[in-house]
Amino acid sequence: MSLTVFSPAKINLFLHITAKRDDGYHNIQSVFRALDFGDWLTFMPAAADAPLLTLTGADTLTANLHDNLISRATTALATRYPDAATPIAIHLDKKIPTGAGLGGGSSNCATTLITLNQLWQLNLSTDELLAIGRTLGADVPFFIFSHAQQADAHALGIGDELSALSLPAARYLLLFPQAHLATKTLFAHPELNKNHALLDNINARYLEYGERLEAGFYNAFEAIASKINTQVATALDYLQRLAAITNTHPRLTGTGSTVFLPIPAHIDLSELTAWQLSAPCPCVVADSLYPASENL
């Protein structure tokens, strides 16, 4: 018997770097939002004499499948709970572009932790899963959090200090420039602002960063990504032209290369379809993952 589980993408409605840490990482402030666009993972019991993990569908993602976050999540749980771990086969139906700022690998990792916790009957709490997730990647805790609590979160620390937000449902046009932006290169860029002041009362300020970006809200990597990569610049320019109609602000998510534009309710399907057909690169329309509170 198999179990197929959704593994969502995320976007950053804004992303600020607030300080460099003593451990070499950076503190951030951001709002993460999970989307109804994502990958699918199918879990199937394997034969008793099979390897711990048989992973298919991920061959093009990493040269060594043991480096894949699905594999690392499986190993992390099996190492901690060897008596409960039984051979498992996982198939990945990949929809989220890699290296796109959408958290695809981290989402797959979190989905694996959550699902194996169920299948192996580990009965780990959300806090215990979050602790394991932190050892595997900075974005992994958000996807555990979004599954257990809320699909929108205010993020601090390295992105692992999370608090739930109640934001209105929204639709987005996401463009996927065929470009890979090295995170290390972006963090090392001399124009990167690494000391943005912490902003307060984020839950009540959605109108300042949700559809539009008011003063003080932005993605710290956007200007740099656009400057060093013409495909990102072209995609942002395309969305900026549409913004005259939507009255919303396009922006980069994560460290890129995906850019997106909030789509207000008055834009009908035919117009949105025409925009997709005219886009300079692959694109998709996605909604916020769960119905959210209308109260700000």
From TrEMBL:
Alphabetical keyword list: ATP-binding, Isoprene biosynthesis, Kinase, Nucleotide-binding, Transferase
Active site: 10, 139
InterPro entries reported in the protein's UniProt record: GHMP_kinase_C_sf, GHMP_kinase_N_dom, IspE, Ribosomal_Su5_D2-typ_SF, Ribsml_uS5_D2-typ_fold_subgr
A GO biological process held by the record: isopentenyl diphosphate biosynthetic process, methylerythritol 4-phosphate pathway
Enzyme Commission (EC) number: 2.7.1.148
Domain GHMP kinase N-terminal: 68-146
Keyword Protein biosynthesis assigned: no
Manganese in keyword set: no
Xref: SUPFAM superfamilies: GHMP Kinase, C-terminal domain, Ribosomal protein S5 domain 2-like
Family annotation (NCBIfam families): ispE (TIGR00154)
Task performed by this protein: Catalyzes the phosphorylation of the position 2 hydroxy group of 4-diphosphocytidyl-2C-methyl-D-erythritol.
Family membership: Belongs to the GHMP kinase family. IspE subfamily.
Protein name per its UniProtKB record: 4-diphosphocytidyl-2-C-methyl-D-erythritol kinase
Organism: Moraxella cuniculi DSM 21768
Gene name as annotated: ispE
